[in-house]
């Protein structure tokens, strides 16, 4: 098929590369605010596993063409993958289509726009045989290529039989193991995407609430988690307490769901509470640090392992580390930070701050003379540290585990002080 991809989001880059890789002729038109000259150097694009090489391979094959003007003629699919604040751009793009083409085509709305916006896009077409379907972006940053080419599901919102068949054919190469399409009305697909994010955030925040309760009752929340997850009605997915979630897509989709509820006149006290809990949890490691030193924090030193909002990405958008760093600096704490991928983004914010030190290569260097080590992002390189070396490097061997990846009893047996999220252990003879 002849496909136009419009947008500069991760979802646009993946769609352009993946569709061209299976034989479709793809023209990719990045949004003018972020043209290819800027996009090709973006850290998130370069660090997304395999993506840049797939884009390059598509360009070499001639099946993927980057363009600074949209192709209008003889296009069968227009794939829109735009940021939520680019709705007007989407409407202007679609409004120009009828004048250039009268043959059948399908608009695939892969953007996170308000519920009902796919219908609005179709209304701008005006021609019989030209339809718009909703195909919400379900990519996972850090494994975007895999989640597109080996999808667990597609939420396909379509009420047009021909458009449904066209989209199925477009994505047939990625739908061979089993039928992963969940066909539903367009508004249902748009709301289902937001509802999924809301449910995942609710599970995380609920576990964080339970972790706080477990702390106050002197209960290890890990036992509670295992008991809950063993119940088949609950399961283990997204049942891990931590120091808060972030990320550009997750956070803005939650806000989009809140906006949808507000616009409908149905305020959600639950969702507001979920968001409040998450913001509070971003300070939980700071509060544990404060409590351990009874508020005497000025001129102390903290090592932070992990800055990205999750492993496998360079992004720090709404990441817990930002709230944590600001809280520490406000108390006159010196901060040493290591992250395998996200330091360039963090440098843009804190490069000039005299109390912030970046450790590019050796994550142990961040721990020299530290009064605490805060584990914020659970990169695999942090899972099995040399505990003896940490004990020797640190002034106070306090481990604040924001992701509960360490065994409290084992860490304590090595002579360090462990505090997790709803988990704790004291060193021998303490």
Strand order of the largest sheet: 11-10-9-12-13-14-15
> Uncertain segments of ≥5 residues (pLDDT<50)?
none
**Rg computed from alpha carbons, rounded to a whole number of angstroms:** 24 Å
Summed up, the helix count is 18
In what range is the share of β-strand residues?
Answer: 5-15%
**Helix coverage percent:** 40-55%
The helix/strand class is alpha/beta
Q: How many E strands? A: 15
Describe what is shown at a glance:
By secondary structure, the chain is α/β, with parallel strands linked by helices.
Q: What would your notes on this structure say?
A:
By secondary structure, the protein is of the alpha/beta class. It contains 18 helices and 15 strands. The protein has helices at residues 10-21, 36-39, 43-47, 51-61, 87-95, 97-100, 117-125, 144-149, 161-170, 186-217, 221-229, 248-263, 269-281, 284-292, 320-330, 343-350, 387-393, 408-413; strands at 2-6, 25-29, 64-66, 77-80, 105-109, 130-134, 154-157, 181-184, 301-305, 334-338, 356-358, 372-375, 398-401, 417-419, 424-425. The strands form three sheets. The chain has a seven-stranded mixed β-sheet. It has a six-stranded parallel β-sheet with strand order 3-2-1-4-5-6. Strand 1, helix 1 and strand 2 (25-29) form a beta-alpha-beta unit. The termini are far apart. The model has no long low-confidence stretch (mean pLDDT 91). It catalyses: UDP-alpha-D-glucose + 2 NAD(+) + H2O = UDP-alpha-D-glucuronate + 2 NADH + 3 H(+).
Main traits of this protein?
seven-stranded mixed β-sheet; 18 helices; NAD; EC 1.1.1.22; oxidoreductase; 430 residues; alpha/beta
